[in-house]
Amino acid sequence: MSGAAGSIEDRIQASLGASVERSERLSGGCVADVRLASLADGRRVVVKAGEPGSKLDVEGRMLGYLAEHSSLPVPEVFVGDDDLLVMAYIEHGGGLGREGERHAAEILAALHDIKPTDAGEAQDAYGLGFDTLIGGLPQPNGWDDSWASFFGKRRLIEMAEQAARAGQADAKLVARVESLSGELDGLIGDASPPGLIHGDVWSG
């Protein structure tokens, strides 16, 4: 393992105080190489290493936010740099049974009861106090008094414009998304009160 700012092993040892004895590749990661690393002190950590600009620090901040504000069993983050994310390894059985699915539903539902915050203060508005990511795509947040307005501008139109900039959507499609976004209030109404949601839930 190597990175732009010295070897990954050296950076892990400097931060965690233990050397990496071995590592094995894990699936997933989307924007980075993901490995399970065994440390000399017996700990096992998950290491995501990417190129400069991978914004793994944002992913680390998102995990830290969920750990602080919810009961979701998110891994502890040890290193959260732009090109390196090191976090605790959570033992798992490789899938969810009925009991696990029920528990996941319960803690996700509880997440929706938590108000979003900005600088530690709960907000009666829709959004978040910092910008986030979904995979490698940036998600600008900010605040809006209307859920339909926030979802239309910050999610649907934003993603359509990103697709257009990447050559994956034409102006006609962007215009259709803009038109739909203007009708969201009448189609889906507003969520009340504001609450946290997990925008990238999957079982992998």
Second rung of CATH, namely the architecture of the largest domain: 2-Layer Sandwich
Query: How many β-strand stretches?
Result: 13
* Helical proportion, percent range: 25-40%
Measure the end-to-end span: 23 Å
Bin the strand percentage: 15-25%
Compute the average pLDDT: 90
Which radius of gyration do the C-alpha atoms yield? 19 Å
Give the CATH superfamily of the largest domain: Phosphorylase Kinase, domain 1
Write down the CATH class of the largest domain. Alpha Beta
Structure description:
The chain is of the alpha+beta class and 204 residues long. The chain has two domains: 2-88, 2-Layer Sandwich (Phosphorylase Kinase, domain 1); 120-197, Aminoglycoside phosphotransferase (APH), C-terminal lobe (Aminoglycoside 3'-phosphotransferase, Chain: A, domain 2, Alpha-Beta Complex), CATH 3.90.1200. The protein is 36% helix and 24% strand. The chain has six helices and 13 strands. The strands form five sheets. A five-stranded antiparallel sheet has the order 3-4-5-7-6. It has a two-stranded antiparallel sheet with strand order 1-2. A two-stranded antiparallel sheet has the order 8-9. Strand 4 and strand 5 (44-49) form a beta hairpin. Helix 4 runs antiparallel to helix 5. It is globular. The two termini are 23 Å apart. The model has no long low-confidence stretch (mean pLDDT 90).
